[in-house]
Amino acid sequence: MEQDRQEADGASEQVKNLTIPTGGRVLLRALPAAVVLIIGLPIFFWWRYDVLDDHELLGLLLTFAYYMLVFMTIGRTRAPLPEPANQFPREHVGWTLSTAPRTVTVPQDPDLRITIGVAATSRVRTAALTSIAALTAATTGWVHSVSFFMVIAAVLGVLAIVFIARARRSWSYLNKLHAEKQTS
Fold this sequence. Notes:
Elements: H1 2-17, H2 23-51, H3 56-76, H4 90-98, H5 110-144, H6 147-183
Helix pairs in contact: 2-3, 2-5, 4-5, 5-6
């Protein structure tokens, strides 16, 4: 019994030492992915389908290399987030995030605070990456005059607007979380 409580206290201390990034820092960490996608995809399509049109093996290797570059960039730019010791219902986390613009403080429980911070960071990152994907599809469609990419850009643009609307509350929570850390 005592050992369980000590493990829980140790987990809470570990959670306190790991930081949740601010909304701005999440967006800054998404910038390399934006560069690789928005600039890289039109260049990739030009190189793959215009320059290397007759070289299938080289084109396949280039495709594989570009996909690996994209996945590695998105994976490496993800902020390390703590894992809270306790699990909380999704409804409770969603409700706390939805009321963040109207409330003055963040929850006092450190595990709940971290859980909601991780969810808020995830929502901001999803909004950023969806916006980047929409811009990438629009840029590629405009540069190569391919209407298929414009349709994809429109669909992704609508999704980005929805995700940005959800991320607004998460951004508010992250600002309150960091403002409270600076005052204490």
